[in-house]
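Sequence in, structure out.
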Amino acid sequence: MRFIPMTVLCAAGLSCAALAQDTTPVQPAPEEHMAGEPVPQASSEEAAAALADNAKEAPEPEAAKPLAPDAELLKKLAEESRKIYAVQDLPPIYPWMLRQNLLRADWLGQRYRDKTLYEPINVIIRDSSADSGKEAEEQLMSACRHAKFLYRFGHSSDYLAVIDGQAVSPFPGRRRYSFSDRPFETNNNHGRIFGPIRYKGKYYFVGAFSREKVRVAPPVTHKYVSFNQARDAFAWSLDWGGYYKITGFVPLGNAVLGSTQAWTGDHDGTAILLDAIDK
């Protein structure tokens, strides 16, 4: 696939550009090298009580409610998606995960190194052989289960992505769930997947994946570690699983650089493209 070079114009005067370096993702390192700080043991009564309190605060998960984003703002984002970059054979993809108000998701407002942390789209999944959106969904769910990225409770929800000018809800749609390689009480790679959207006869999903470090002892905290580690771990796990293959690296240009107010951590501005293997 040939990618057309592009740049992203960021809101609020932020300077955005893809990192000028080789962006080819590496295969994920073993867990002990990716986990960040060790996970505190939860065997103490204090830690167990903290987890129990955390569970009590969580309401019973429910299906995501239909979203009605602001039509004018959605139109603006759709136009920006088409202007800021063009990639052959792919639909216009807005390069950020969004809150319901269509503003960029920012790790629930947590500051990272005293800056706002924006959450980029860093995975694109394409299914050229599915006969329906439902079939594309079923294939992706099977692949995620096989890759040990299970659909687990314990993560924030109510996000959106914009594909081909359409506001797309998370797949499959349960609140406070995401795809994760470990339970939310431990260090994990997790992500939200949005779609599918049919474009030129193919079904597309996009994902925003990140790695978090969890502190179990009171107060319970979830801290950002990496976007690239989680992206690579998810993509390679699907590639090895036999359902999808990594076929490209798409420069979405969503690495925020040079700003004193916000950034994107270690993200390199690239989304990994996975194609479903033909039946």
